[in-house]
Design a protein that fits this description.
The chain has 239 residues and is mainly α. The protein is built from seven helices and five strands. The model has no long low-confidence stretch (mean pLDDT 89).
């Protein structure tokens, strides 16, 4: 799993650094107009390199469905549910990329705006060297600071969704009632809202509620980020 994410970062970094070899991009950087920096990096550039993470998320979802079927609390999901899950996973990757793009644009803006001590323009080679260094720094931050959070979202989010969707499918296909229970680790790292949910049990098709806000399962992508990021809670199913 970690290898897939490393491949994701490596490919994105390679694609972005290759931009610095483009004559048009060199001209933009040499021009010194900060507002032009955002146009250097199209969002599609990062998206193209995202396939390893998308595949990882799809595998995690499918594994959860299979696991829940084996445990007796799930059924195979239909095509529409699978497509909806894939769409959710794609949106999560887009969110990853948007954060990365903002940081890269900031790096490129700093390079474009580089001046000498007297406020005059500097040689484009210096600007390109700064851009290269700052871009490397963005991806090093991804590898060493954001990697675990992204990996958790790419694995645990789709896995929890697969468990939930397969349990809902079982109830819909057989009429058998299935309950889900929120289980928190209850250690010092658990947020207060999830401690409050610990032990709550609802029908699998219903939501848990935190101060009136619905959340279907841990890391539910439809819930507010402050209720899902870094979540380590799990679901327990029963009849």
């Amino acid at each position: 799993m970690s290898t897939a994410l490393d491949s994701f970062f490596d490919e994105q970094e390679r694609e972005v650094l290759q931009l610095l070899e483009n004559d048009v991009v060199k001209g933009i950087i040499a021009g010194g107009v900060e507002e032009t920096a955002a146009g250097i990096l199209p969002a599609s550039l990062l998206t193209t390199a995202s396939l390893p993470v998308v595949n990882l998320m799809e595998r995690s979802y499918s594994k959860a469905v299979s696991d829940n079927v084996e445990e007796g609390y799930g059924s195979q999901v239909d095509e529409a549910t699978q497509k909806a899950a894939n769409s959710t996973q794609a949106s999560t990757v887009i969110s990853f990329n948007q954060t990365t793009q903002k940081e890269l644009v900031s790096a490129l803006t700093a390079a474009v705006a580089l001046e000498d001590d007297d406020g005059g323009d500097v040689d484009v080679a210096l600007k390109l060297a700064l851009a290269y260094s700052l871009i490397k720094a963005v991806f090093n931050k991804l590898r060493f600071k954001r990697k675990q959070a992204i990996l958790d979202s790419a694995v645990y989010g789709p896995y929890n969704q697969g468990l939930h969707d397969s349990a809902v499918a079982l109830e819909q296909q057989t009429g058998r009632k299935v309950s889900k229970q929120w289980v928190s680790l209850m250690d010092g790292r658990v947020r207060d809202s999830h401690q409050a949910l610990h032990g709550d049990k609802v029908d699998v098709g219903s939501s848990f509620f935190v101060k009136g806000v619905p959340i279907r399962f841990p890391r539910d992508p439809l819930a507010p980020v402050h209720l899902t990021i870094n979540c380590r809670c799990v679901l327990k199913f029963g009849n």
